[in-house]
Amino acid sequence: MDSVSFDTERQSENVTMAPRNLLFSRAFQVGVSQVIRRCSRFLFFFLAARRLGPEKLGLYALLLATVETLALISGEGFTDYLTREVSKTPELGRGLYVRVVELRLLYVVVLFIPAMAFLHTLKYRGEVLNDAFLLFLILFPRAPLSAGQGIIRAVGRFGWLVSLEVLQGAVLLGTGVFLLARTADLRSLIWAEVASAFAAGLASILLVYRFQRGKVALAVSWRRVLRETPTFNIYPLIANIYDRVDIVLLSALAGNLAAGVYAVPYRALGALQILPFGLVSALLPSISGIGANQNDRQLCSRLTSLLYSLALIPVLVLTLLAGPVVLVVLGHGYAESGPVLRILIWAIIPMFLNYGLNTFLLARSREKIFLRTTAVCCVVNIVANVILIPRFSYFAAAAVTILTEVVLLGQNLVIIRKTFGFFPVPDKFWETSGIFLILLAGGLTGNAYAASLWPSAAAFLLFTAYLYFNGQVRLVVNGAFTG
Predict the structure, then answer these.
(1) For an engineered disulfide with 280, which of 146, 229, 359, 468 has Cβ 3.0 to 4.6 Å away?
(2) DSSP assignment of 285-335, as one string?
């Protein structure tokens, strides 16, 4: 335990001796912020759907998708860059913040003309282009907002992430309800988006000023930022492409019904990613701050052990209960989504592990590798889906998602072995896997002979008890990664 402790001799706010449950607290705060964000946006989208109708809603979805793509290209990934660099050298906080915001604003201006030209090629004219121009304004406050979130994470004030999402959601829903009650049109939605973005952007500027006030500030050159940040523009975009292309290909090659059946379990998979995202967001400042050392092997072993154990819990539950859960939540119209979810949920295992390994590589300044790994995954995903979807429909899309995550995991393992000289194998991997498979087989057998949920419930309770008494879950509770 002492050999992987993060309580090293550093001089910034986030590196003093942490409370036992600091990791759990920070991960919980990041998770809550994401839940608030997704729920507020879902409610806003639902409100828009009710008030506008499908045609106008489709246009709004197109414009919003275009803006989200521009946000990725212009540097949404700079949040992680700032978290890592400021965690290592707190004195760079103000200088890096200013340079990153300036750079992203420059990218937004440069990308504006191609974006408008793209909409023009889709035969949109006049009023639609005016609406697009207004919606693109949200990219300007998102520059200081995402940069501010990076600073907040670096200084360990994760609770402010929740406050920013509450502010964004409240302004979005409040302004949206008020404007749509007066005029149910697309422009009302756009003004609500703009108001929400500017409110959160201004709040983040004030927070960064508060955190950096009175601290030593080192100047940061343009050359450094231009040299170190391009990877953070490109790899999130590639990952976003292969993360979403299966729905597009499924719709084109197998029809909208198949896409609808697949979309429900795929959304569930996305919701489960809040857990590893929260954990690695809380860990990135700590791992970055201590720098590379001889304890990286044990660090990776603990990290992968934690994420592997947490991944097995939803895999066990949904492999046993996917069908009943889908029928209860969505009804018999989505009965086919149950078998798809039972397959797709297995992608959680390599996915959770990849969250941890990518965070380790990012903390060790190996993010340029992501360009190659995500490009390989993108090619594998598209080619496999094009070949298999016409024959196996949504089952193929689910299997290809698993394949893509396994390919990424294999690349990460090889890279860490070649770069750092070890394989990041979870602690007690074979023992944990054996217990999991035995309980899974017992639950499936019990379900086949008992018309009740008791076999599944027993398997779940026994497995979580094993993880707790075996020390896996207590890694979170006791803050094994923080001190």
Answers:
(1) 359
(2) HHHHHH-S-TTHHHHHHHHHHHHHHHHHHHHHHHHHHHHHHHHHHH-GGGT
| Total number of domains constituting the chain | 2
Cα–chain center distance at 13: 25
Q: pLDDT tens across 73-128, in order?
A: 899 889 999 999 999 888 888 899 999 999 999 999 999 888 888 888 877 777 88
Q: How far apart are CA 224 and CA 205, in angstroms?
A: 23
Q: Give the SS3 label for residue 295.
A: coil
Nearest in space to 180 (alpha carbons), one of 169, 168, 195, 190: 190
Both tokens of residue 352?
Answer: 């959770």
Q: What are phi and psi of 442, to 5 degrees?
A: -65, -40
Q: Check: CB of residue 426 under 8 Å from CB of residue 432.
A: yes
Shared domain for 151 and 263, answered yes or no, is no
Q: Provide the whole-model pTM.
A: 0.80
Residue 69 covered by a domain: yes
Q: How far apart are alpha carbons 363 and 196 in whole angstroms?
A: 32
C-alpha 361/C-alpha 373 separation (Å) is 12
Alpha-carbon torsion 71, 72, 75, 78, what sign? positive
**Are 31 and 278 a contacting pair, CB within 8 Å?**
yes
